[in-house]
Amino acid sequence: MDSTTATVDLVTNNFKNQSLENDDSNSKHLLKLEDLNWDHSFVRELPADPRTDIIPREVVHACYTKVLPSVEVENPELVVWSESVAELLELDPKEFERPDFPLLFSGASPLAGAVPYAQNYGGHQFGTWAGQLGDGRAITLGEVLNSKSERWELQLKGAGKTPYSRFADGLAVLRSSIREFLCSEAMHSLGIPTTRALCLVMTGKDVTRDMFYDGNPKDEPGAIVCRVAQSFLRFGSYQLHASRGKEDLEIVRTLADYTIRHHFPHLENMSKSESISFSTGEEDDSAVDLTSNKYAAWAVEVAEQTASTIARWQGVGFTHGVMNTDNMSVLGLTIDYGPFGFLDAFDPSYTPNTTDLPGRRYRFANQPDIGLWNVAQFASTLSTAELLNDKEKNYAMERYGIKFMDDYQAIMTKKLGLSKYNKQMIGELLKNMAVDKVDFTNFFRLLSNIKADPTIPDNQLLIPLKAALLDIGKERKEAWTSWVKSYIQELSTSGLSDEERKASMNSVNPKYILRNYLCQSAIDAAEQGYFGEVRRVLKVMQHPFDEQPGMEKYARLPPAWAYRPGVGMLSCSS
């Protein structure tokens, strides 16, 4: 760490500590690790694997296996942490300074109160049923209840083998761990539902990885991320048991009851007086009464939350890369950050996943359809377990489509600063952006500089967008000029001042996104033992909509080296 960063960090820490000391009402609620209020509802209420060994095997009639972290460490180091996640847990930020913190959050030393386990689930991978998958390198420590009775599950990713590791080593490397940590926190700051990350610890031991599957493995630094979410349940958590026949169908119901009880409790208490019923739109005009079946109401909520999250992905140009059903959160969270990528040049066919290249199933433009396909698999699982009838199943899928379009249209309308959705204008814009490979993030940020003044001469219309419209010829300039003229015409009917519209647009169009090359720069520095860049990128990404003077370099277009293999595109292996 350089002296400037060290000084800034020292001043910041002193200020925070002083603030905490001055605020008695705050400080008395902050907890030491030993004081966390653990609850183990998952372990307590769901069927367990009778075995606790880590021999790879089919685990039947069980939702989890109790396993202990087994990762080897040598002088583990704390690389980066999130104080905002510590706040969720009401954990005293001074706990990050404990000498034993890296040992506890690498899993090398047991955390008091934890009851570690690995979850059992299956999933469709690239559209094909893959059978049992499970937590192959993630070990949940348990759930922490804060003073508001919010439930937060803590999970160590890369903590060693489990029965679900198959032929893998159960470990993770610094490269993928930094990407997961930074993207979890960046997505939260963008307002997108996501799992979170409390901290990242380097184990001090190397891990062998063949990053490109080309027969050239190399040693990389090992690391562990502590992931935090209200639950890590996935679509595949239910699918697996439904796939195993009659004997395990009751587990689907048990798991659904557990999920509704802890994460959708409002559905337990529905009464007929609420009359939540909807026309299915079918010929017989029959209605789906969601108050008579809590599972149907739940399926609809899962479908709508999934749709809403994916609409937000589309709004910021985020491509997940591996939308398998085992990577779909039942709470609608963005989960499992592998070969993700934010759009640089606008390309609807972009996929950040080299494994996905042949068919581009998980390309940016296809994410909404994949979301629907995944919801259909989830609804079919509940139907197989006789928790939904066909009408209810179809209705959940219908609600997905309606919710996605409602949210996506609202997001795009706000991104353009329009008073109402204009399909033709937005469609034309995206077509132009794709033709000229315009940077997605920078373009929308610059768009707020357009003035709603129809008298601006044609040859000056594109000046505010000059930094985004690079190397375009005369014909393309004419196409853009035509679009901007119609855009200004539309803006002039909104009644908003230019200043008001700019502020509104800048609150939804980020200046800073976690471009892959920014991750790579932080990874390169951390692999050399300098963690300051990871921490700096985290700070910038925590305020993506602010100008942040002095940090402009983090909004720059990717340099030429960013297009080398392993930076712009990655494989599922990490």
From TrEMBL:
Keyword Nucleotidyltransferase annotated: yes
Name of the protein in question: Selenoprotein O
GO molecular function, one term: ATP binding
Keyword entries, A-Z: ATP-binding, Magnesium, Metal-binding, Nucleotide-binding, Nucleotidyltransferase, Transferase
Gene Ontology cellular component annotations, sorted alphabetically: chloroplast thylakoid
Cofactor(s) named in the record: Mg(2+)
One Pfam family in the UniProt entry: SelO
Listed NCBIfam families: PRK00029.1
Family under the similarity heading: Belongs to the SELO family.
ATP-binding is among the record's keywords: yes
InterPro entries membership: SelO
